[in-house]
Design brief:
106 residues; mainly alpha; 3 helices
């Protein structure tokens, strides 16, 4: 067995997956609860639900996809993905302003 291979304790991994599953279920419950809050406008509800969803995505990506423990290559690929996605969104917004006045729906 080489030095780069390592043993994973299956019971601790299953325990971690169970905690992540419980966190995801709680986050879904919080999102549903936030959607039914009275006397709060929809923009505030949407902001609350998006904040909960971002935390939920961090937990899933960090623990189930092992992004918190992976090496530098994963972060390099993710940073390139974010960079090019932001570039494509910027190009899209820039192209939307290229229409003559009155020809595009804004």
């Amino acid at each position: 067995m080489s030095d780069s291979e390592h043993h994973v304790d299956l019971s601790s991994y299953i325990r971690r997956c169970a905690w992540v599953f419980a966190a995801v279920i709680c986050a879904i419950g919080l999102m549903i609860f936030a959607s039914y809050l009275p006397n709060i406008g929809w923009p505030v509800k949407v902001a609350m639900i998006l904040a909960i969803a971002i935390c939920n995505a961090f937990v899933v990506a960090g623990f189930l996809m092992h992004l918190l423990t992976e090496k530098k290559m994963i972060y390099t690929v993710l940073s390139f993905t974010v960079f090019f996605f932001a570039g494509l969104m910027g190009l899209t917004l820039w192209a939307m302003s290229d229409f003559p006045f009155g020809t595009a729906v804004h």
